[in-house]
Amino acid sequence: MKLRVRLQSQLMYQVIHQIMKAEIKIYLKKYLKDYESMKGFEIISEPKVGIVNYGAFAKGPEGKSFGNKIYLACAGYNAKNSYGGYVGYEIQAFFFDNNGKVIQNSKSDRPEADMGISKWSC
Predict the structure, then answer these.
(1) Tens-digit pLDDT profile for residues 25-39
(2) DSSP secondary-structure letter at 110?
């Protein structure tokens, strides 16, 4: 029985890992200057749960202003910039909503990326 539970758990982790990997690639395809140049892509952490605080006047995915859970995974890759040169291997956290879609990454400078005071690490 314990072996069966362990195998189910490992299978579930592999499925979640593959979904997160695919969703991160979809996100990067949208935001990288030259997605096709990306090399060395890998997920470097197990899925994690972090905390995001939206502040006194905004509500997060759990309907709370403070202490909302957010799911994240860390990934590394190298890709070309606007000048056509590789920028070097970067590690970023990618944050997921409750539906498993990437909503932003740790380097984001877009307005919807304001995470307030958040707790997470790669």
Answers:
(1) 999 999 999 999 999
(2) S
> Which amino acid does the sequence have at 120?
W
Closest CA to 54 of 41, 39, 68: 68
DSSP string, 17-77: HHHHHHHHHHHHHHH-TEEEEEEEEEE-S--EEEEE---TT---TTS-SS-EEEEEEEEEE
- CA separation for the pair 8, 57 (Å, rounded): 42
Q: Is 14 helix (H, G, I), strand (E, B) or coil?
A: helix
For 79, what's the count of Cα atoms within 13 Å in the CB-facing half-sphere?
21
Phi–psi pair at 5, nearest 5 degrees: -65, -40
Confidence bin at 113 (pLDDT 50/70/90): very low
Q: What span, in angstroms and rounded, lies between the C-alpha atoms of 82 and 65?
A: 37
- Tell me the Ramachandran region of residue 70: left when phi exceeds 0, alpha when psi lies from -120 to 50, beta otherwise: beta
